[in-house]
Amino acid sequence: MIASQAMISATFSCIKQAMALGCFPRLKIIHTSRKRMGQIYIPVINWFLMIMCVVVVSIFQSTTDIANAYGIAEVGVMLVSSTLVTIVMLLIWQTNLLLVLCFPLVFGSVELLYMSAVLSKIAEGGWLPLAFASVFLCVMYIWNYGSVLKYRSEVREKISMDFLLDLGSTLGTVRVPGIGLLYNELVQGIPSIFGQFLLSLPAIHSTIVFVCIKYVPVPMVRLEERFLFRRVGPKDYHMFRCVTRYGYKDVRKEDHHVFEQLLVASLEKFLRKEAQDLALERNLLESDLDSVSVASRDPEASGSYGTEELKIPLMHERRFDESGTSASEETTSALPSSVMALDEDPSLEYELSALREAIDSGFTYLLAHGDVRAKKKSFFLKKLVINYFYAFLRRNCRAGAANMSVPHMNILQVGMTYMV
Known about the structure:
The protein is of the alpha/beta class and 420 residues long. Helices cover 58% and strands 14% of the residues.
């Protein structure tokens, strides 16, 4: 019973870590604790273990064969652990090379003796863990291989900003009121699927937000910290990038109206903060220019200041650091009206009014249905792996884009084929 519980917990943990490394298809993970991130439950794996336990017992019908299989699995874990500890000692701990060599010699020799004793039991039930290991290795390798090729294709086919600038603010089409939320996995750059939307649709929304969902290793992300915005292109393009962060205990299947309200509130806050930073930067630049002009008109003062700086540089730096806070406060108090009253900024007011008009027209969720296919000149084995095995895993794994309960009438999906 102890060994079975340890195997179940270890299987959940290994599967989760493999998914985080991109080496296993996405599965549903249930976190059962708000304090311990590693306390998880994977329903599919739990059912798989139960079914395979029944199958193994019904096939072997003997504890002797099951013990042989368990022995090879146990010795294999010992060998893998010793190998990994040796690598950690050499690369991470940077232990003395002599001690690193002594560790595998001492422990590895004992484990190899155990392995030589259990290898004769392969035909008597010991083949089971080797078969399981081979199947899982193939699944992990195929998924990682296909995912890496797909990601490289997305990065290689990103739309350049120069191309968008050539299209102009209309993006080569008609801009209609509304907000388009385009889901993708790229944190930087414009995904190639956006070009498919421009080619397939007769018009595009006046405000485009590229949404990228990321999961962070904390229980819950505060609402005011959930969205990270950044502008894409000039202001008149009305395009933004939004990284949406969720903790492992956050409700991801939230109502789409709640999600839209939070996103719009964060976007308005970003626009006001951007306008304030630009106005503050202009004011500081003007004050620097004024100080330079005053210094140029008073050469004696500037010369004496340079002499003092050469004499006591440390005191000057300390004085500058101590006065940093008060100077910033004085600058803030001396800000122009464009900073103190942001609502009066014409560019900000225009952008906020355009955003409100887009909100009134509604949201549209732009989703991409990507199909990964091997190139025609690829080898037969690569075509077999990508076109059949990897495609099968993609069709049956958990979807990774939008998890909100969005009505079908608000979803617009465009297909795209990635040739890898």
